[in-house]
Specification:
The complex is a heterodimer of chains A (about 575) and B (about 290).
Chain A: H1 3-35, E1 62-66, H2 82-91, E2 96-98, E3 105-107, E4 110-115, E5 121-126, H3 140-151, H4 169-173, E6 185-189, E7 192-196, H5 204-208, H6 218-224, E8 240-246, E9 250-255, E10 269-273, H7 278-286, E11 292-293, H8 303-306, E12 312-313, E13 316-325, H9 335-343, H10 347-354, H11 383-392, E14 404-409, H12 412-429, E15 433-438, H13 440-448, E16 454-460, H14 467-470, H15 487-498, H16 502-519, E17 522-529, E18 532-534, E19 538-539, E20 555-556, H17 563-569
Helix pairs in contact in A: 1-7, 9-11, 15-16
Chain B: H1 2-18, H2 32-41, H3 48-60, H4 75-110, H5 115-129, H6 132-146, H7 158-188, H8 191-198, H9 203-215, H10 217-232, H11 235-240, H12 246-256, H13 259-287
Classes of the chains: A alpha+beta (about 575), B mainly alpha (about 290).
């Protein structure tokens, strides 16, 4: 090891230790508490054996949670992150809201809506007397303006494609037509908003619940330009408004007195913290500083120690962890090579031994949870078949197989999984595999430009439909990133969009997924799970597949007696 | 000072650009039009040379433009909002290290080779060798998660400050104690100290009136870089304790390829370090008349 290398290794170890040690310490603390009957060491009034840490409710209706990171934007039209979305959903309200338990569309700004029999025209009827937080009236033309703004190329919205089902939206967004009035949105009067789609879209209402489609205040933006995105200038129409925003410190929100459903907002203050370090977030939860540690902010290593607590909530999450293969390069242009890699991947062992059973092994590209969708059979671990496939590809017993790399971004888990896969492929196929670790930005550049052989990837669904996991694999889609292209697949996915019969549509998507799996540009590994912590005195937060949590009606239960007993009554899913 | 700052800024500018990737990329595809729009807005579609010249011109006016990752924030606003936090954390830690480190070193020197001396030096050795990313979580484990006495993170109430300040000060406290002891031991053997003692001065006046002024010089020369480091080097602590300081911004900015924010922070740090070194030189001359200000 030469000097610079050594230096780098030390640095790597140093930064690694910085992130691992807190988790080890936490695990240790939990271990101690568990083994020594050590809950005696925590004041009995503050902690209980059934819950993780302090369960003293805060004074009044103040709710504190970790938002995970500093939001990049406050403007719903251009934002693209979960922390941004959580703030946006507090400050703005769209045509539909989501039911906190099922995420089914429920009336929001629109009190009701009608859909034409051909599924092309959606008519939203807005509530009377709506206003923005500054008292300015909120009307249907505001939605027309907001949606056109999302689609305007000069806005640079990253999620503009959410509105592509709307007629001419895609062409306008891509600059193919310049006239925004051709986009299928209209407001015949102040309380009616009409959307005309280019083709029927079964999940359109789910898209309308997404933050990109939230209304934005024309009267403020036209006056202030991009300066409107500050705590002082931001004007929303949602249940809360921002009173304090300190970078990397916190957001403070209070109820918007002009919100139409103000009577049912019980919290008097929300504090949102931007904590990136999962162990720090979990420490704050245990110490009782935060009331909600949303999914993804509990360190994986700690989960086995705390999943028995009543305030821990697990369950499936709408995301997939998989490997993808660039199919335009030799030897991966050969389908038998890809199948060999697929069959040689023992995802059950990875989940059981490497990930300690915290996530389920999953061989499909689509997660669970779509009523009526019958997923095609997955390629399961079969070393004999794997060797046969490799022989068919012209590499019997791995002879002559060129050296290649597994690319992953910096993370202890990604590394351990990659090492396990490397060992499996070497053991079963006798092929030379090396590992390549890159930090996030370099990794993104490499995968986007298809400069890799095999890469660790993941995908989080946007709406509850298998389409959100399949349309990305169409020829030339920017999220495909493998160069894989199949005409039958493309035709099925496109055809499914136009198919009016729901059962037939799902069957077509299932057939498409079958083609994708058989052709092997992807190796699904596991199904994401949630792991969140909610204090027992918090009411109104439920585990949902999309990990979206409307906080409008959340409140703090002071129990009028026994908080723990009250929590037991309302069994958390 | 100006040429050094220029060299640092130039090096940082080109190193950042040499790193793979850029500020506008995501696990989900960014539409080509949106990406082009963003790059145009930030001038990233211009030739690199032109970008560099523009950056230098703006940097000279201390205007680094908006952050790429947080476009609603100006780089200078981010620095002005977060630096005071790092500074406060650092100054409390420095104060604590001096308040305990100097007396500890003086006492240890005065009682050389006694049990107290050995005990003090052994514990400072521990302070030097236990890294802050071990000490911090250990303190959190004991005082926040087991005893529930102090908050485990954040930077709002006075109680929030206790653990990070202790964690940050440990290593400086240890160094200061050891340097004070060394400096004092040397000074106490000097002729003028013997003279002072021969005059019959009380021991406290010998030490605090005469010996300390010279004996503390190693600490003073250590303080210059230490102050800079104690304010800048709290990156790990700011991360563990979720403190909204400048160090946390620097790390995430580099990972995000937030060119403007990285450049702003690096230039700011470099300038700050140079000013501090100047101050230490001046202090040195004031404490020890043998040193002349060139």
């Amino acid at each position: 090891m030469n000097a610079p290398d050594k230096n780098r290794a030390q640095k790597a170890r140093r930064s690694l230790a910085a992130f691992v040690v807190p988790e080890v310490a936490l695990a240790l603390a939990l271990g101690l508490a568990g083994c020594g009957g050590g809950n005696a060491s925590t004041p009995a009034s503050r902690a209980s054996a059934d819950y993780f840490g302090d369960i003293t409710p805060p004074k009044g209706q103040v709710f504190t949670f970790n938002n995970g990171a500093e939001p990049e934007h406050l403007d719903p039209a251009v934002m693209s992150g979960q922390p941004d979305g959580r703030v946006a959903r507090l400050v703005f309200e769209g045509l539909c809201s989501s039911d906190p338990k099922t995420l089914a569309p429920v009336p929001g700004v629109a009190s009701r809506w009608d859909v034409s029999p051909d599924g092309l025209v959606y008519t939203f009827h807005l509530r009377p007397g709506l206003t923005w937080a500054d008292g300015h009236p909120l009307t249907a033309p505001d939605f027309v303006w907001s949606w056109r703004r999302v689609l305007s190329p000069s806005t640079g919205s990253r999620y503009a494609s959410f509105l592509y089902p709307v007629r001419n939206a895609e062409a306008f967004n891509k600059g193919e037509i310049a006239d925004s009035t051709q986009v299928g949105v209209a407001a015949p009067d102040d309380s009616t908003f009409i959307v005309t789609l280019g083709q029927p879209t079964a999940y359109f209402l789910e898209l309308v619940a997404y933050y990109t489609t939230l209304p934005t205040p024309r009267h403020v933006i036209e006056k202030l330009g991009s300066n409107w995105e500050s705590a002082k200038n931001l004007v929303g129409n949602g249940p809360f408004r921002i009173v304090l925003w300190k970078q990397k410190d916190r957001f403070e929100l209070v109820p918007n007195e002009r919100y139409w459903d103000r009577a049912n907002v019980r919290l008097t203050k929300i504090v949102a913290l931007p904590i990136e370090e999962n162990s720090t977030s979990t420490n704050l939860y245990k110490a009782g500083v935060i009331d909600w540690n949303p999914s993804g902010y509990v360190p994986k290593q700690v989960i086995p120690f705390i999943q028995h607590y009543k305030d821990f909530s697990g369950g499936p999450y709408h995301g997939m962890y998989f490997y993808s293969i660039v199919v335009t390069k030799k030897p991966f242009d050969n389908v038998w090579v890809r199948r060999a890699l697929n069959y040689a991947t023992d995802r059950e062992s990875i989940c059981k031994y490497v990930l300690k059973g915290t996530v389920p092994a999953w061989g499909n590209m689509t997660p669970t949870g779509y009523p009526g969708y019958v997923a095609p059979p997955a390629l399961t671990y079969d070393p004999v078949k794997a060797r046969e496939c490799l022989a068919k590809a012209g590499y019997p017993d791995g002879k002559g197989f060129p050296k290649f790399e597994i690319l992953f971004n910096t993370s202890e888990d990604h590394r351990r999984i990659a090492e396990a896969v490397q060992a499996m492929w070497k053991r079963e196929l006798h092929i030379p595999v090396t590992l390549s670790n890159q930090e996030w930005a370099s990794y993104l550049a490499a995968t986007t430009e298809k400069r890799y052989d095999v890469a660790r990837r993941s995908w989080i669904g946007d709406y509850m439909d298998p389409n959100t996991f399949l349309d990305m694999w169409q020829t030339g889609n920017g999220n495909n990133r493998t160069g894989w292209s199949d005409k039958r697949f493309d035709a099925l996915v496109r055809g499914a969009t136009l198919e009016p019969d729901p059962a037939k549509r799902l069957a077509m998507l299932s057939e498409a997924e079958g083609i994708l799996l058989e052709d092997g540009p992807v190796i699904p590994i596991y199904h994401y799970t949630q792991s969140s912590l909610v204090k027992p005195y918090v009411r109104g937060i439920y585990s949902t597949m999309l990990d979206v949590h409307p906080l409008t009606h959340v409140w703090i239960d002071h129990g009028e007696g026994d908080v723990v007993a009250a929590a037991a009554k309302e069994a958390r899913p | 000072m100006i040429p050094t700052l220029w060299a640092i800024a130039t090096l940082t500018f080109f190193l950042m650009r040499a790193a793979p990737g850029g500020p506008f990329q995501s696990e989900r595809e960014i539409p080509a039009a949106a990406k082009a729009q963003l790059e145009h807005a930030y001038g990233l579609d211009r030739p690199l040379g032109e970008q560099y010249v523009r950056f230098l011109g703006n940097a000279a006016r201390l205007d680094f433009g908006p952050s790429y990752k947080y476009p609603t924030q100006q780089v200078k606003d981010i620095i002005f909002a977060s630096f005071p936090v790092s500074l406060e954390l650092g100054l409390w830690a420095l104060l604590l290290s001096l308040a305990i480190g100097v007396p500890l070193g003086v006492l240890a020197a005065n009682r050389q080779n006694t049990g107290f001396d050995y005990g003090a030096m052994a514990s400072t050795l521990l302070g030097v060798s236990v890294p802050n990313f071990v000490l911090g979580p250990l303190l959190v484990l004991v005082f926040s998660l087991t005893l529930y006495w102090l908050p485990p993170a954040l930077w709002m109430s006075p109680a929030d400050r206790v653990l990070p300040v202790i964690t940050l000060s440990a290593i400086y406290l240890a160094y200061i104690a050891r340097l004070t002891r060394g400096g004092m031991l040397e000074t106490l053997r000097q002729d003028y100290i013997r003279t002072a003692r021969a005059k019959g001065l009380p021991e406290s006046r010998v030490i605090f009136g005469h010996a300390l002024k010279l004996g503390i010089l190693p600490v003073v020369s250590y303080l210059g870089p230490a102050v800079a480091r104690i304010v800048m080097g709290s990156i790990v602590i700011e991360q563990i304790f979720a403190i909204p300081g400048l160090g946390r911004h620097l790390v995430s900015a580099a990972f995000n390829r937030d060119y403007t924010l990285v450049l702003g922070i690096v230039v700011f740090y470099a300038g700050f370090l140079m000013v501090l070194n100047l101050v230490v030189d001046i202090m040195y001359a004031w404490l020890d008349p043998r040193v002349e200000l060139a």
